[in-house]
Predict the 3D structure of the following.
Amino acid sequence: MTLSEVVKIDGVAGNFSVSVKESPRYVDMTKCIACGACTEKCPKKVDSEYDAATGKRKAIFVKYAQAVPLKYQIDPNSCIRLQKPGACGFCEKVCDAGAINFDDTEKMHQINVGAVVLAPGFETYDPTEAGVWGYGVYKNVITSLQLERYLSASGPTEGHLIRPSDGKPVNKVAFLQCIGSRDENLCGNGYCSSVCCMYAIKEAVIAKDHVPGLQTTIFYMDMRTHGKDFDQYLERAKEDSGVRFVRCRVNGVETDGASSDLRLRYVNEHGRQIEEFFDMVVLSVGLQTPKHVLDLAHTADIKLTADNFAATSDFAPVQTSREGIFTCGAIAGPKDIPQSVVEGSAAAAAVADLLAPARYELTSEASFPAEKDISREDPRIGVFVCHCGSNIAGVVDVKAVEEYAATLPDVVYVERNLFSCSQDTQEMIAKRIQEKNLNRIVIAACTPRTHEPLFRETLKAAGLNEYLVEMANIRNHNSWVHSKNPEAATAKAKDLVRMAAAKVTFGDSLKPIAVPITQKGLVIGGGVAGMTAALNLAKQGFGVHLVEKSDTLGGNALNLKHTWSGEHVPTQVAKLIDKVIWNDRIIIHKEHTVTAVEGFVGNFRSTITGKDGSTKVIEHGAGIVAIGGEAYIPSEYNYESITRVVTSVQFDKLFELKEKHVKQAKRFVFIQCVGSREGDHMYCSKVCCTHSVQSAMALKKESPDRNVYILYRDMRTYAQREALYRQARKLGVIFINYELHGKPKVTENGSDIDVEVWDHVLHRPLLIKADMVILATAIRPKEDAADLGKLYKVPVDGHGFFQEAHAKLKPVDFSTDGMFVAGLAHYPKPVEESVAQALAASARAATLLSKTQVNLDAIKATVDENYCDGCALCVDVCPYNAITLIERAAEADRAAGKLITVNKAQCKGCGLCQGTCPKRGVLVSGFTMKQISAQIQAALAV
Amino acid sequence: MSFEPKIVAFCCNWCSYAAADLAGTARMQYPHNVRIIRVMCSGMVHPEFVMDALSQGADGVMVLG
């Protein structure tokens, strides 16, 4: 349901009644084929929201080229006809599909659901009102979102960076960070938006790629690149791309008048006042909750935080204050894409937990007629040529194509359709297949990427194997791109039909492969992430084996006292352990490790070995790796020789026990980034800034006359944690910035510890006499992570953390199907992110485990035993480890030797094996050598 | 008549074939003498296909992935 908004949520968890208001689209979605004729004719141009007003759109439009559903809509506020009845109406006249409906009206829907997920997102801060940056006044001051559009190939300038004021090329750009973030004065958004540092760096690097010689400067307060691989990106931006970073908050932008250049005044790292000119200034605008989302929160009756984000618990990060209503994404705090995607899956897991009893209630099995065996029949090809309204027929002489198709070998039936994809045509095609006894089908229409699934269903409905259809793409690859040359387009259409017919002639009936699933999960690691995942899977109804190396559940969380928001960790962890222990579906294997693995998705057999050497074999369909991380034991800052130099975790214990040295001490120095963000460990440990700030605050609250210093490189109290940083400063904690080249020196001097550091404000060395030094030590991966990775064929990255399949698209999946990752094993992260990731991994695993079998596409590699000689060239190139070399017994006319075998469950049908095989010993069904050769031959036949 | 080359292009279903689809959506005009053959990965293109195409009269072969 698009253009729809929730106006009321009545009821309780498990039984909500939701009122949804659907605004009129004025375009019938069932008829619109997104040909674009309407938008071409529409005379009304307005600012495009998608292009952040850098470009225009029409009154009838799709928001962007990849929009889903790809259907047009009319903006009633700008449409001439809707504003003035009787006027214009061009779109209606040119729409061959008859999809325009000016009489469309608002509709109300009443939906009964068991749970609600709120994912309304955010808006970027609008810097117009603040005034000081000249946004909306000086044309060359733009927002980061506008720059994004200027740099895009599909943007208003097709990726060319030019000045909006005069169209001149840009040579010098300044990025101003924290516009609408970390700023209570101008906008009231005290929090950090979390994503702007990283996107500004990315934009600066991309802009430099677009414009050789472009100078880019990022003015920032703290560089918050705390995500996975972000610090390495930051270093590359500095070292390789030459992006300049200046630590200074610029308070305003001025213009020099005549040339529209922009003047910035700032204080540089040497404390000097500088005035510098730029061609363009980019405002890195922050994220905030829009008014309509605040209304939605009110409608949903959920609690919000002081920063106007949905309030959630760190141990239930997608659960709102109202039971049955969940969140994901930026509604519950500013966050980046990977974390939003993780939360999307996490919300699904939370819903699946709540609604587990109702699973399968709404599923229905599709039924198809029995499939005809065509293996003994000669090919009888039917060709259907689509007009696509005027999209094809307006350029291509479809009648000529129809006549030509009839002359092709084995073609016994040809027909033209106005729209081959329409429901009535589908039924007609199915009827023709039966009437004319067709056994191969060619659809000359649009792209198989969007429409092949539809035609496959039609074949199935007609009792024909779904793989016996081939599409000739005479629209996207022909009429649309050769519209100025109808004659050539018609000739090309004939060629494309001939190629499709040649290929489908050699098509076979293919059977999708069904792989049975063992409906049990294995979770490796009994920390917060592992336990959360195990518990969620169990509550969804699946049996779970939880394997823990040590003799205790709880993991690293056992060392923690409070989450950033102040929740008591020991209480929550104790509750979690209790739930896990008392859940009948969870079998806990303490003091066990995984030592051997066989099988593949749906069918793993993992051997676990106990401390005593005894082994057990666990059969499971999916696995979640949550083995955690460990604290770095430092060698720097004389940690080993000075007893009052301690790590954060040690300090927490001493503080909690009110140890006398801590109790009496008056001077504390925290040193950040110990073992993080340098050398081979170029990553941020993410939790240490917040942890030190909280410890410092506790010290100050206990005794305000203490001197507490935090020596930091970039204070990374991201998102709503920024409030803690603010409070700490108010309490009098002193923050001193140091750079990597001027690391603090710690020495013992009688009863004092001397800490020397370069003061960034005074620009001279500073000696702090301390009673205690606390090192914020890094989080390291587990030493045995890589070994476990090898067993499951899942990789670890250069730092030793597990590598997900795709940072954004598959943040908890491994490239090996059926295996997932969560928690510190993936990257350092705070409790709520570990919990969200664990829920996400559980949701992903449950999509597998909820089925008794998985049906896989039939486009798979198949071995031709007549030709395969076991040379094994394909084994190495297969990216999915799907091919193994096996022994081949001697036969009448052949000596014993080797042969490959393809695991169809692992094969993705990419055909690297086929491309590599010198003997035609392995073929991909649906794309065999014969089929492609026939296509080549047909392509060049005329 | 001027020389009109015949080009055979092998396009990966997941990237270049999709890109050719998008070129259509964006109505970008390009020379008509290219014939696209869809493959599931450019790695699927066997050297024989390239030889086949050239020997049967193609003036150029593109493998796009």
The beta strands of chain B are 7-12, 34-39, 60-64. The mean pLDDT of chain B is 93.
